[in-house]
From TrEMBL:
<keyword id="KW-0472">Membrane</keyword>
<dbReference type="InterPro" id="IPR001681">
    <property type="entry name" value="Neurokn_rcpt"/>
</dbReference>
<feature type="transmembrane region" description="Helical">
    <location>
        <begin position="306"/>
        <end position="330"/>
    </location>
</feature>
<keyword id="KW-1003">Cell membrane</keyword>
<keyword id="KW-1133">Transmembrane helix</keyword>
<feature type="transmembrane region" description="Helical">
    <location>
        <begin position="86"/>
        <end position="111"/>
    </location>
</feature>
<dbReference type="GO" id="GO:0004995">
    <property type="term" value="F:tachykinin receptor activity"/>
</dbReference>
<keyword id="KW-0807">Transducer</keyword>
<dbReference type="GO" id="GO:0005886">
    <property type="term" value="C:plasma membrane"/>
</dbReference>
<keyword id="KW-0297">G-protein coupled receptor</keyword>
<comment type="similarity">
    <text>Belongs to the G-protein coupled receptor 1 family.</text>
</comment>
<protein>
    <submittedName>
        <fullName>Tachykinin-like peptides receptor 99d</fullName>
    </submittedName>
</protein>
<feature type="transmembrane region" description="Helical">
    <location>
        <begin position="198"/>
        <end position="220"/>
    </location>
</feature>
<keyword id="KW-0812">Transmembrane</keyword>
<feature type="transmembrane region" description="Helical">
    <location>
        <begin position="123"/>
        <end position="144"/>
    </location>
</feature>
<dbReference type="InterPro" id="IPR000276">
    <property type="entry name" value="GPCR_Rhodpsn"/>
</dbReference>
<feature type="transmembrane region" description="Helical">
    <location>
        <begin position="350"/>
        <end position="368"/>
    </location>
</feature>
């Protein structure tokens, strides 16, 4: 077999720290060795336009809806001044660039380093793929829609976009859970047989199948409608029409949002908190008793750093996604907030915060290695 020379990956300090951080945290051998352990191996409704979803009881013909004067005035609050559009475009554009770029670098580092092709790193690559989908296929198109209050991509991609929204987020969250469980088994139960690569691939496939099943209602219920203003202007709305009504009046969607919140937020928070708590307790409990040598003290410091980093991962996930899930639940009980004066800016902030969760992982790896 011809040996292919690996491209250099340590020419910049950032890449050097990043590759070492990934290697130290996610490489089975390196991670467990640093801990003194022997071998044993970023919701809610996808309707990102809830703050200006139309009430589908207007005068409607086919896929067209004629708005009254009062309803047209309500729509006008969503037309941003140019400087605000430029500002939000810069904020979201930066987030997409950093998230996609950072996660592509992570994938490249893993795939171009043979020693890093470990079981756990398969999960890492899957997480980065899901995060790239979140930051590109999800954010870009929904942001354009939110910014202009108009869906220019057609009904087919309306269905696809809403499907990808939940698919990518769920896959990212489920992969985070899988990583935490893998670390738990490796550290708390080091003598148990390690997960094989075949089993890892099967779990990754199950993650995507489960995520697809969870997102299936979005591709079924997504529709577009053309709203026509009395001055002749039109806009296209991409929305979810459930069997018992449109979004803000649908009991089915409320139940669906509760399920999404439980499965992609509450359950992952509980799972990761438990596994990382057990990991932390195992690490703190493994400290040397009595006088410590310099090497032992260094090992203890390394363990403390890893425990803190694990808690930061969980905290970042919780902080990023909490406002997003709360917003959709509140919007069902208090639909008047959808027409509040500054709801568009509020929602854009909440949406940016949730989607920005896909940015932080590469920086966490780098930060961990630099301390």
């Amino acid at each position: 077999m011809t040996h292919i020379r690996q491209p250099p990956i340590t020419e910049s300090p950032f890449l050097d720290k990043l590759v070492n951080g990934i290697s130290n945290y996610y490489s089975d051998e390196s991670f467990e060795s640093s801990l003194g352990i022997g071998d044993g191996s970023n919701g809610g409704s996808s309707s990102s336009t809830l703050f200006y979803e139309t009430n589908m009881t207007e005068e409607t013909t086919g896929n067209y809806s004629l708005l009254s004067d009062e309803e047209q005035m309500e729509r006008n609050i969503y037309i941003m001044p140019l400087y605000q559009q430029i500002l939000w475009s810069f904020i979201f554009g930066t987030m997409v660039f950093v998230a996609a770029g950072g996660n592509i670098i992570v994938i490249w580092i893993v795939l171009t380093n043979k020693r890093m092709r470990t079981v756990t790193n398969y999960f890492l690559v899957n997480l980065s793929v899901a995060d790239i989908m979140v930051s590109t296929l999800n954010v870009i198109f929904n942001f354009i829609y939110m910014l202009n209050s108009n869906w220019p991509f057609g009904e087919l991609f309306c269905k696809v976009s809403n499907f990808i929204a939940i698919l990518s987020v769920a896959a990212s969250v489920f992969t985070l859970m899988a990583i935490s469980i893998d670390r738990y088994l490796a550290i708390v139960h080091p003598l148990r047989p390690r997960m094989s690569r075949t089993a890892t691939v099967i779990i990754i496939v199950i993650i995507w199948i489960a995520s697809s099943f969870l997102s299936l209602p979005n591709i079924i219920c997504s529709k577009t409608i053309v709203e026509e203003f009395k001055n002749g202007d039109t806009r296209v709305v991409c929305y979810l029409e459930w069997y018992d009504g449109v979004s803000t009046k649908s009991r089915i969607e409320y139940i669906y949002n509760v399920i999404i919140t439980l499965v992609t937020y509450i359950l992952p928070i509980a799972s990761m908190s438990y596994t990382y708590f057990r990991v932390g307790r195992e690490l703190w409990g493994s400290q040397s008793i009595g006088e410590c040598t310099a090497k032992q003290m260094e090992s203890i410091k390394s363990k403390r750093k890893i425990v803190k980093m694990m808690m930061i991962v969980v905290a970042i996930f919780g902080v990023c996604w909490a406002p997003y899930h709360i917003y959709f639940l509140l919007a069902h009980h208090y639909p008047q907030i959808i027409n509040a004066k500054y709801v568009q800016h509020t929602y854009l902030t909440i949406y940016w915060l949730a989607m920005s969760n896909s940015v932080y992982n590469p920086f966490v790896y780098c930060w961990m290695n630099s301390r």
